[in-house]
Amino acid sequence: MTVQMKHLLPPLPYDYAALEPHISAHTMMLHHGRHHASYVASLNSALKGYSALLGHSALWLMLNARRIPQQIRTTVRNSAAGHVNHSLFWRSMTPAAGGEPSGRLADAIDRDFGGLDLLKARFLEAGSKLFGSGWVWLTASREDCGVLQVRATSGHDNPMLQGYVPVLVNDVWEHAYYLDREDRRGDYLERWWAVVNWEEAARRFENPAPSSEHRFERDAAPALRAGG
Ligand code: MN3
């Protein structure tokens, strides 16, 4: 009997109430326990009967949409990216936040934005201007000493698809802030800095290796077909 690999909802690395008063327990409970969980459930459901795809990570599925049979491609791509993005998002935050970036990341922020306040202003602008649902990212290039940029993506698009390293990400779908801030997305974006996990951001900036493995996998993987 084959054991099927199921995608799992990762536990939050802190309690639902841990990010209060900046993000409420109610928002976190719905966001993690329902919204993120629904992407994991729809991914598992879409992959039923496609045994050739069952051994792949959500990241691989997100990066290799063209290898996914057309009849499930859109669902798998959106669900896998929703799963990947939310997993990055939870770890971009911490109740032990505070302070400012340090080390090489701080140097790069000064170099590429002219300081943390100017990065925050760019982030607010990008998140406020984004039409509809999406994500705001701090990314680094893989070459050129990790040039930092702020970028916004629609739906569940992820800058890894363009080869960038995600350093930080904030969710600006309405479900991320509406219970707490109603229509004030800008308030949510500004308060979010109080819970940002700069240690995690520094780790991602200094050690961007994991996705180059997946880039290799993308080149090396054989074509996949639906299987029983
Ligand atoms: Mn979300």
The class by helix and strand makeup works out as mainly alpha
CATH H-level name of the largest domain... which superfamily? Iron/manganese superoxide dismutase, C-terminal domain
Mean pLDDT: 90
Spatial order of strands in the largest sheet: 2-1-3
Q: How do you describe this structure in short?
A:
With 228 residues, the chain is mainly alpha-helical. The protein has nine helices and three strands. It folds into two domains: 71 residues, Helix Hairpins (Orthogonal Bundle), CATH 1.10.287.990; 110 residues, Iron/manganese superoxide dismutase, C-terminal domain (minor pseudopilin epsh fold).
Task: List the main descriptive attributes of the protein structure presented here.
228 residues, mainly alpha, minor pseudopilin epsh fold, 9 helices, 9% strand, binds manganese (III) ion
Written overview of the protein:
With 228 residues, the protein is mainly alpha-helical. The protein folds into 2 domains: 71 residues, Orthogonal Bundle (Helix Hairpins); 110 residues, 3-Layer(bab) Sandwich (minor pseudopilin epsh fold), CATH 3.55.40. Helix content is 47%, strand content 9%. The protein contains 9 helices and 3 strands; from the N terminus they run αααααβββαααα. A 3-stranded antiparallel beta sheet has the order 2-1-3, with helices on both faces. Helix 1 runs antiparallel to helix 3 and helix 5 packs antiparallel against helix 7. The site of manganese (III) ion (MN3) has 7 residues, from helix 1.
